[in-house]
Design goal:
The structure is a single chain. The protein is α+β, with helices and mostly antiparallel strands and about 170 residues long. It is built from four helices and seven strands. α2 runs antiparallel to α3 and α3 packs antiparallel against α4. InterPro entries: WbqC. It comes from Nonomuraea guangzhouensis.
């Protein structure tokens, strides 16, 4: 379990059991998504603990490796940011086992598409600086789940910096 309010390093579930959270605390269980939707962020932000569910089957048509970029104004259609993935065990590959097919290309795609889509936003300059952590993950890990979890943490931390939960923004 990972405390979402303190943003500590994730615990491994392999061979380790943490006692149940104290009565009254909220635990959210969710798969790691690439830059998750507002509803997912709200769920995680309001929880005391987040269990990263990465030992289930990877689904190509889900948000585990793609994100829908919201338009900033009414003139632009929503756009998808998708990362090409390699599934070493075919359809039975877990989220934990999914790999970026070309990490360098994925890193460039995330940086370029987000910049093209959001560079006119007042929030882009500070977000761009913090995005470097997610981009660096493509060089330090071969697990797609690590990158997607970092993207989720980035957005959760942005909500804390703004001083409000995602539901209030």
């Amino acid at each position: 379990m990972t405390p979402t309010r303190r943003f500590s390093a994730p615990d491994s579930t392999a061979g380790f059991l943490r006692p149940d959270p104290p009565y009254g605390e909220v635990c959210a269980i969710h798969q790691p998504n690439l830059f998750p939707r507002l509803a997912t962020l709200t769920k995680l932000f309001t929880a005391d603990y987040w269990i990263v569910l990465d030992d289930v089957q990877f689904a190509r048509r889900d948000y585990q490796h793609r994100a829908r970029l919201a338009p900033l104004d009414g003139s632009r259609l929503p756009q998808w940011l998708s990362l090409s993935t390699h599934l070493p065990y075919g359809r039975s590959t877990t989220i934990r086992g999914a790999r970026p097919a070309d990490p360098t290309r994925c890193q460039r795609r995330v940086a370029q598409l987000l910049a093209d889509h959001y560079r006119n936003s007042a929030y882009w300059p500070p977000f761009k600086r913090r995005l470097e952590t997610v981009l660096a993950a493509f060089e330090s890990t071969d697990r797609l789940a690590d990158v997607t979890e970092l993207s989720t943490r980035l957005l959760l931390e942005e909500g804390q910096v703004a001083g409000a939960s995602p539901a209030q923004q």
